[in-house]
UniProtKB/TrEMBL annotation:
Signal peptide residues on this chain, from the entry's feature table: none
Keywords recorded for this protein, A-Z: Acetylation, NAD, Oxidoreductase, Phosphoprotein
Pfam families associated with the record: 2-Hacid_dh, 2-Hacid_dh_C
Protein name: D-3-phosphoglycerate dehydrogenase
Domain D-isomer specific 2-hydroxyacid dehydrogenase NAD-binding, first and last residues per copy: 109-285
Length: 327
């Protein structure tokens, strides 16, 4: 594939640019462009690399007269109009797995922090109080963790939380019961998970089937006081229903890294963030130096594989719309 000029539109680790330039590709980094600027600039480039900030909408794609590839340094591609890209024969690829360990480790630290009230207790001590009784917690040992989505991150979370003595149960439409058992997760339908789980963590993409998956009905079906974690995508948990469940005690706590709108402005989301039983982080799942280098290198390696000149790079595991290649 003939890729000579690449536009990097979001701040991706320098390893991305270095690898492409070392292979003779011209790279321009233009961050925080307005939509109009991006539409004006995109026509000069054969490939576009983004993280989650740049919205690659249909009009951007149509303006990309020379565009052949859109690379997402990261996992979620909900900021890219994949249908429009496919219709215009533009490959969309991501870096599956590059940030899985980082997202998994954040999930596990949120679960353990929730169990022992680490965040509010530390804030209280910093504010000069000594509230030992207020912040008594509970053990995770012997508790049940329900994992919705047993892909890369869900599986890693299961393996780590098992070492805390948690029983792990889960559901994934494409992971068989046998495969789940191989990493000690008992597979069961969602309706069976709800009343059994002390903690529920979601690790699915945001797709029509998962949007608002955790809603009022689910909170009512859950164990009273269930704790819920979302380091996947905003919109999987129905925020209005979560707030209601936090208020009436059906949900005993939530740890959220992602929100329906980011940065959050909706009054309901802001009230959730302020709730005393909520830990909220600003989409930090992939924010580690290791993950950022890994996804930067992986996106460049795949573009080099598509160019096909350096025999060291041949794999394109992240292509999402393979039909564009006629495969
Ligand atoms: N917070 C962050 O910064 C951050 C970082 C990395 C990944 N993520 C997000 O985490 C999520 C999981 O990432 P991953 O790398 O594990 O993806 P993955 O593709 O490896 O796994 C996702 C799994 O969800 C399953 N799934 C799909 N629909 C389902 C449903 N209705 N019920 C149950 N399971 C369902 C799929 O079959 C798949 O196995 C994605 O949404 C990704 O965007 C967030």
């Amino acid at each position: 594939m003939d890729i000579k000029r690449v536009l990097v539109a979001d701040a991706v680790d320098a390893a991305c640019v270095d690898l492409l330039e070392n292979n003779g590709v011209q790279v321009d980094c233009k961050y925080k462009q307005t939509k109009e600027e991006l539409i004006k600039n995109i026509k000069d480039y054969d490939a576009l690399i983004v993280r989650s900030d740049t919205k690659v909408t249909e009009d951007v794609i149509k303006a990309g007269k020379n565009l052949k590839v859109i690379g997402r340094a990261g996992a979620g591609v909900d900021n890219i109009d994949i249908n429009a890209a496919t219709a215009n024969k533009i490959i969309v690829l991501n870096t599956p797995g590059g940030n899985a360990i980082s997202a998994c480790e954040l999930t596990c630290s949120l679960i353990t922090s929730m169990a022992r009230n680490v965040i509010p207790a530390a804030a209280s001590l910093k504010a000069g109080r000594w509230d030992r009784k207020l912040y008594a917690g509970h053990e995770l040992y012997g508790k049940t963790l329900g994992i919705v989505g047993l892909g890369r991150i869900g599986k890693e979370v299961a393996l780590r939380m098992q070492s805390w003595g948690m029983k792990t149960i889960g559901f994934d439409p494409i992971v068989s019961a046998e495969e789940a058992r191989s990493f000690n997760v008992e597979s069961m339908e969602l309706e069976k998970i709800w009343p059994l789980a002390d903690y529920i963590t979601v690790h699915t993409p945001l797709i029509p089937q998962t949007r608002n998956m955790i809603n009022d009905k689910v909170f009512t079906a859950c164990k009273k006081g269930v704790r819920i974690v979302n380091v996947a995508r905003g919109g999987i948990i129905h925020e209005k229903d979560l707030l209601a469940a936090l208020k009436d005690g059906r949900c005993g706590g939530a740890a959220l890294d992602v929100f329906e709108q980011e940065p959050p402005k909706d009054p309901i989301t802001l009230e959730i963030i302020q709730h005393p039983n909520v830990i909220a982080t600003p989409h930090l799942g992939a924010s580690t130096s290791e993950a950022q280098i890994r996804v930067a290198v992986e996106v460049s390696e795949q573009i080099l594989a598509l160019i096909g000149k350096n025999k060291q790079y041949t794999e394109t595991p992240g292509i999402i719309n393979r039909s564009v290649l006629g495969k």
